Amino acid sequence: MKGAPASRPVSNEPEDDSVLAFAVPGLDLRGRIVRLGPVVDEILTNYPYPESVARALGEGVALTALLGSMMTRHDRFQLQTRSDGAIDLLVVDYDPPGRLRGFARYEKEGEAPLGAPAELLGRGHMALTIENPEEDARHQGVVALEGEGLALAAFEYFRQSEQIPSFLRLAVAEVVEPRGRRWRAGGILLQFLPPRGASLIESTGEVPDSWNEGVALATTIADHELVDPSLSAERLLYRLFHERGVTVETARPLKAGCRCTDERVENMLKSFSSQDRADMVGDDGRIVVTCEFCNRRRIYDPAALD
C-alpha cells in the first residue's frame, strides 16, 4: 500500500522563476503556481514595450509557464492570440524542460495604447498548440477571446474541451528593487480532479462542495501575493490550504531563452535562392535579420552565403 506523503516544514525561501505543482487531497484538487522574476523581466524588456503592453505579455508568459509545464518532457507548447485589439498578435513559447520566450505586436503609431490587458487584446481567438518534434505530432485547441482577457479564455478552454472545473488567476507588476525597476509575474491554476474524474460531475450534474470550497479559498489570493518577491510559493499555498492539507512536488526551474542561433539563421538564409537573398539586401549591401522574439539583430555579407 502506498504510504502518505512525507511531511516537512513549509519552506519560506522564495524560488523565483519556477513552477510548483501541488495537490490538496482533502478537496480532490490539483494545481500549479508560478513565480517569475528575472525570466519575465528579460522577456518584457527585449523591446521598449509601453507599460500596458508589457503587462499583457507578462500575463501570457505566466499562463504559458503554467500550461506548458503540464506537458510531457518532449512536448513544446505555444500560446498565440490574434485579435482586433491594440495588441493584434501575442505569442509565447514553452520548450521543455522550462525555457520561455515571447513577444507582442501592437500598433506603434500615435500614442502608446492604454488600458487593462483584456482591453488591449480585444476580441479574436487564442490558440494553444502542443507539438512533439520526436513523434512529428501536433495538436491545437482554439478558444474565443471575448474581450475578457487570457485567464477567462483559458477557463473557457478547460470548460469546453477538457470539461474540468478550473480556477485561474494571473498577476503582473513592476516592482522597485535596489537595482531599479523590475517586472514580476505570477499565476495559480487550480483544477478539480477527483478519483473518478469528470464522470463524477457528469453523473450528478453538480460540482461537489469540495470544489466550491477550493475556489472560495483560492479567490482570497491578492495579486500582490502572486508577485511578492519575499513570499515563497509554499508559504502562499500553506496560507490557502493548511486546514485541508497540501502536498507539493519539486519545483521546476524556468529560464528565458530563444530558439534562434547564428547557425540556424545562417542555414535559413542559405536555403533561399540567390535571387531571393538579393532581394533581402539593404542599401548598405548587407542582409539584416532581426528575431521577433528576442530582438537580436544579425548582419550578413551576401557573398558569404553563396
From TrEMBL:
It comes from the Bacteria. The keyword Disulfide bond applies. One of its GO terms (molecular function) is protein folding chaperone. GO terms for biological process: protein refolding. GO terms for cellular component: cytoplasm. Keywords: Chaperone, Cytoplasm, Disulfide bond, Redox-active center, Zinc. Signal peptide: none annotated. This is Hsp33 family molecular chaperone. It comes from Methylocystis bryophila.
